# Entry
Amino acid sequence: MTPRHRERLLFGTLPWVSRARQEHDFLCQAMRDQGVEILYLTELLQDTLEYQAARAAAISMAVADASLGDDLRGQLRAHLDDLGPEALTQVLIAGLTPEELKAGHGVVFELLDRHDFVLDPLPNLVFTKDSSFWIGDQVAVASLAAERRRREAGLASVVYQHHPRFAGSKWLYQPALEHLDGGDVLLLAPGVIAVGVGERTTPAGTERLASHVFNAGLAHTVLAVPMSQQGTGGHLDSVCTVIDIDAVIMHPAVAYTLTAHTITPRPDGMRMSRSQPFLEAAAQAMGIERLRVIDTGTDPAAGRDQWDDASNVLALGARIAVCHERNSQTNARLEDAGVQVHQGAEQRARQRPRRPAQHVLRGVP
# Structure
């Protein structure tokens, strides 16, 4: 990826690759330290492509772009057919340039710019929750609204359909259904799900997911949260993070203006309430008196970069979080609220060795 292709990215600037790898390794270790098993999508896909049915599905998806034309589509298919699982995985994720397609010829191929791709890369595949997520023991593969991202959900489908690890898994959602983005699905508590409704997730997608989780017994309440409200241009899970059984991380400008509709199942269908404050609706659904807000201390409407997205925190357990190291103001507020914050590799390098803290992990979704 180069500055020429930055419009393909969901983040504002090209990443510093070596540092990104370092931070990724730190993130994985922080999760392992809390007993989390790490699965790498690249390795899962490579294993899956050992099976002919999975190869056929993945290759058909890769060559489906109408802009290829008949000749180039055939040449690309032949090239992909000749690749082993490891090389095929690499191409499906990282893309293929005209220079790499040695057998390329014909009208479409010759008219490609040297900076173009025969097969586009999938840089946004790093946001794995957008394309698939789990609720309880059931997997949901998203129906992504952006056409250039649909191959991400397609690769997730191939893995879940064909990898032996997921054999027999129940499916909660599939890409052919109404638009639904995993980044808009937020698990507030056992049985309580919030769904951001906006440009990525449609009302119809929200209705479909609510129906499926009710029928599967995975939830008793779904909150539909309009994302066109002030300061909420991103995914729902980037503006609100559950950090304890009664606390969330949000900016007050969002927390106290965000509204929600409560959807509950009924024998004759689903019932949706009138709009009410998000915090109030969430607390009622979660069965608690009130939902505390830990202030991020940053302005979500100030055009901040992806790396300064202070509400976009990963909770590893009750009061245990991984945050962007640059969010010093938010991290200080979290620590003041009793949250253990893992900020980044440099933080670990600066700390003196000490005995690990003992944590009692409570039921945070």
Q: What stands out?
A: The first strand starts at residue 132 and ends at 135. Confidence is low (pLDDT under 50) at residues 351-365. The radius of gyration is 22 Å.
